[in-house]
Every structure is written in C-alpha cells, then in structure tokens.
Amino acid sequence: MFLHSNNFANELPRIRLQGLDELTLYQVEGTEQPLSGKALMEVGIKVNLRGDFQSTIIRIQKLIDERE
C-alpha cells in the first residue's frame, strides 16, 4: 500500500479484499486474532498511513483449512 499525498491526515478507507474463501481463517500481520475471509472481504483492513509518500506491506497468511 502506498500513499502519495493526504490532506490534513484524513483517514483512509479500509482495504476490502476479494476472492477469499469466506469460511477460511487468515492471519493478518499486525493483528492478534485470525480473521475470516468473509470479514476481510466485507469489513476490510484498516491501514494507518498518515503522511505523504508513506507505504506499508501487509502480509496475509491463509491458515490451515480443516475442511481440506
């Protein structure tokens, strides 16, 4: 994620992911508890970028799916 410029530290919208399995759990770097694919697609991930030209990498790992 890269922020080119931001006016007066406005909060950015959450990033809503696509194409995930709704029932699978995913571990998002920086969060303590795993999140479901459904939550990541509907609620999204909050990104804390405030200043001009800030960037971040968010690692998301699919956890073992017990249905497989």
TrEMBL record:
Residues 2-59 form the Glycosyl hydrolase family 36 C-terminal domain. Pfam families: Glyco_hydro_36C. It comes from the Bacteria. InterPro entries: Glyco_hydro_36_C (IPR031705), Glyco_hydro_b (IPR013780). This is Glycosyl hydrolase family 36 C-terminal domain-containing protein.
